[in-house]
Amino acid sequence: MGGSLARAVKEAGLPWHVRGLARDPATRRAALAAGAVDEACATAAEAARGADLVVIALPVRVIPDAARDLAPHLAPGTVVTDVGSTKAVLTRRVEDLLPPGVHFVGGHPIAGTEESGFAASFAGLYRGARCLLTPGASATPEAVASVRDLWESVGMRVEVMDAATHDRILAVISHLPHVVAYALVNAAARADASLPGLLSYTGGGFRDFTRIAASHPAMWRDICLDNRDEVLRALDEFLAEAGRLRSLIAAGDGAGLEEAFAAARVVRRSLAPAPPRAEDRP
Amino acid sequence: MGGSLARAVKEAGLPWHVRGLARDPATRRAALAAGAVDEACATAAEAARGADLVVIALPVRVIPDAARDLAPHLAPGTVVTDVGSTKAVLTRRVEDLLPPGVHFVGGHPIAGTEESGFAASFAGLYRGARCLLTPGASATPEAVASVRDLWESVGMRVEVMDAATHDRILAVISHLPHVVAYALVNAAARADASLPGLLSYTGGGFRDFTRIAASHPAMWRDICLDNRDEVLRALDEFLAEAGRLRSLIAAGDGAGLEEAFAAARVVRRSLAPAPPRAEDRP
Which CATH number characterizes residue A218's domain? Predict the structure, then answer.
């Protein structure tokens, strides 16, 4: 995420001095060689010193660790943002770690691929995709404007909302489907154990449907636990509907079943087509 | 399904006399004009008279109706097959309708698109995809061989299994995912009703995941009811696993959750990549 952002900033010709922070010397060399950064830093102190805007481009679980590392080196007035897939709990945790006078604006650029690391980064990742901003209690209108400017400069459609709304939306449209896909693949694997070879019959439908079950287990564990309340709520809503369909099938209620399927089809067809490959991230 | 089969038979240069049965005169004209059939018939009597092999290329629900229409016109020794997505209950129902001496071999070419009708047909539909045959009680080895020959001639990989095994496999890898996708879309729609605009945030992940919820409601109603026992069994296995994941999330059991997600990822990654676009049908 960070590598693609740095590349995009440079490709857009923005007159900003970009520092990248990476523990791995090979990553620092690669980022410098690609012209993605002006400086490649090995420590939070180097990266944070004098920065106007700090982007914590890490998965949910390690964002607070990064905030803790950066905190002693951030001057009052600095704006901090992140790219985490959950926002409410995370924002409170990060703000507790940042020094007074530093402004935190939660960010969630809804873009990405199943790959990670600088080698997988590319300047076009964010173009045309959506970015949700959830200003923390410490955010000023100016801080929000500067984070908005950042993402708009690399082609994103930026929207500001409260963190609770963000977490509700993402639980339903992203976190829930992941949990469901993981459950479906595990159930199918168990069926395959009782009827060996069963999984070899899966076609494109099953594969499309379960592609997200190949997502990173630790990252999704963290998302589910960080956004626990909303994930449970969405899961319960889904389980209630699945249970209702189960009852219709068990009762042989063809009219009820057709009505339920037809309603879903209308909704599914009303969704705008996905932009090409840019929105696969949580 | 029938139009694509007829086109494929002709394109393969097979020396068979092909009759197509269609109620709609426009379809008959189109099939003749495309060179897909040698004769375009308007009635079961015309189509069945003297046929060696009859393919009922219709959705599950109307296959028995077609068998009933054809029955009086089928001579002993005729082989009948179908393309239905369920097999055990359907095979018994069809065999009850066919006259003695007619051999029924259940068929399920696992190919297709979300489109239907002759206008959507194309000769390459079946090439490289799998076809499962489930011989009925009335099937002879010769009857099975002739149906196998048909599908292999248009490029399918044919496999013979019993109808119960077919129905178990398809319930898990196809029917269950459809029910789950319908449930997920309905649950998301209900969430959208309480938080208007929620669905507008769906990205490629949600859209890929729910694409099959745009499938034909009546067709999937029929499949779920026809294969009810196996669909309920697969659904219960899935609901048990989804419930287990729910408990892990509720308990904040990060280790258990990561293990469950990682297991699914290993299974999902072990699936062979889907062939290009040919296997999207139930």
Answer: 1.10.3660.10
